[in-house]
Amino acid sequence: MRGQISPQQPDAAIDLDHVTLAMGGRTILKDISLSIGAGEFIGVLGPNGAGKTTLMRALLGLIPATGGSLRVLGETARRGNPAIGYMPQFRSQAGQINLCGWDFVAAASDGHRWGLPLPDRRRRQMVAEAIALVRAEALADRPINSLSGGERQRLLLAQALLGEPKLLLLDEPLISLDPNHQSAVVDLVREVQQRLGIAVLFSAHELNPLLPAIDRVLYLGRGQAALGQVDEVITGPVLSRLYGAEIDVIRLRGRIFVMSGPLDLEHHAHQHEDDHDHDHGHDDHGHDQNRPQADRRGAGHG
Amino acid sequence: MFDYDFMRHAFGAAGIVGLLAGIVGYFLVLRGQTFAGHALSHVGFAGATGAVLLGTSPLAGLIAFTLLAGLGMGVLGDRLNGRDVAIGVVLSLSLGIGLLFLHFFTAYATQATALLFGNVFGVDLSTLAVLAVLAAVCLLALAVVARPLLFSSLQPELAEAKGVNPRLVSMLFLGIVALTTAACAQVVGVLLVFALMVGPAATAQQLTSRLSRGVALSALLALIEAWGGIALAYESDWPASFWITALSAAGYFLSLAVSRRLRFGRLPA
């Protein structure tokens, strides 16, 4: 059913119409048209630099499209849309601060308004609800520099859920988590998504941890995108087109491996990240190549 | 010791500066920009000595230079991240230029010492009034930017997505920091601004993980250390700036020991 959602559907969470995105003069995504429904859980995959973060930043209105139109929840993508919840890739700097979970989450409530963060009932209730949604009550009093990666992700998710968003953009929430914590985060996001009936874009390096949760998969590569059911998209021909190389897809006991010759590409992607580190360090804001710096630091200290 | 005008002025100046530095310093430490704050005060040295050379008030030169440098750093924004070497080079260049200005000015020894290490017992009424105005402006400005400042300090990308202009917030904050360092320099001198801006704030952050308590504790500690330093200087005849740095360092290292015990006590088995 979900595979047949047609473009320009009125209740679509995301509608891309011939969208082209560029960063620093380089085209990241070219002429993409797709539509994502209001209650869908979408796994966003693709090699590093394929545009996962760039797409999210465009949906948030942080970078303009160089062509086409992006519509989010029925309106043109714009910065500060309160209906979008966003969980950026975690930067290790904030994780080293001795600040309790509650104050960390609360910093994001009304954080865009000028003035003093004075306590008031409405804000306190908003924060308490978001923390309860991710079952992080026990983390509210603990300093964030004492939390494990999985616990920290729950607080970040609570932050993203402030203000009852209709669309959640989660940028690599599984990075530097071990497999147990990975599946706990995926299950939690799925549970929250179902309960609130919202749309989720969940980007990841690996498909397998997402398999139990996702409705459809959006695979990006070489400026192109493929959106559909896992069985339609994760195939040799489709991925060969996205990678520009011969790709084999191997299914083994409910798990899927994307291979190029002898290499497991999704695992290999982590090593690629470091190769790009030095080239783009001067850029102001991260596009995908700029991310790995944060990732690596996160992995080192987190 | 309150019989003397200079002592009353000293306590007044240290009180104003302590409260201001403690509050602003908390956010400086939270943002991990302590080195930028340190560098700003050094840039002020060139401004203060330049002002002396031109025959105007060193405080005016100090304020003008730190403010310009602070706003400039804010404009550069993210590009300064991880550029400690560049900041350090500008820092030493500023001290060098300040030295050159003093070289052209004849009676430089006492002037230099006062600027570098502070002369809290030399604060007169008009300086006290300037400090009060500086503090009022800084705290008012901080009250206006507090929420987006906190948000973009902890979650810069999320804040930007929600409509915060991180560059504007950073610029305003570094402007506040610049004015605060100028005020601090009146008490402890440009070289020791760290003792009041960073020491108490870092100590408070070791001792509490609550934001509101942290800010209050930081202000309280800075006030105690500044007043304590002056009282100890009065009793011992050693420099007030020495005592303030000593109290600041003692507070910080004690808090490290205490917080380690707290943390081990709190960890679940």
What is shown here, in short?
The complex is a heterodimer of chains A (about 300) and B (about 270). With about 300 residues, chain A is α/β, with parallel strands linked by helices.
List the helices and strands and how they pair.
The complex is a heterodimer of chains A (302) and B (269).
Chain A: E1 14-23, E2 26-36, E3 41-45, H1 52-59, E4 67-72, E5 75-76, E6 84-87, H2 92-95, H3 101-106, H4 121-133, H5 149-161, E7 167-170, H6 179-196, E8 199-203, E9 216-221, E10 224-228, H7 230-233, H8 236-243, E11 248-252, E12 255-260, E13 263-264, H9 265-275, H10 291-301
Parallel strand pairs in A: 3-8, 3-9, 6-7, 7-8
Antiparallel strand pairs in A: 1-2, 1-4, 4-5, 9-10, 11-12, 12-13
Chain B: H1 5-30, H2 34-54, H3 58-76, H4 84-104, H5 108-117, H6 125-154, H7 156-161, H8 166-188, H9 193-197, H10 199-207, H11 211-236, H12 240-266
Helix pairs in contact in B: 1-6, 1-8, 1-10, 1-11, 2-3, 2-4, 2-8, 3-8, 5-8, 6-8, 10-11, 10-12, 11-12
Structure explained in plain terms:
The complex is a heterodimer of chains A (302) and B (269). With 302 residues, chain A is an alpha/beta fold. Chain A contains 10 helices and 13 strands. Chain B is mostly helical and 269 residues long. In chain B, 83% of the residues lie in helices and 0% in strands. Chain B has 12 helices and no strands. In chain B, 55% of the residues are buried. The A-B interface holds A 57, 60-62, 79-80, 82, 84, 86-89, 91, 93-94, 97-100, 103-104, 107-108, 110-117, 142-143, 146, 159-160, 282, 284-285 and B 30, 32, 77-79, 143-148, 150-164, 205-206, 208-211, 214, 259, 263, 266-267.
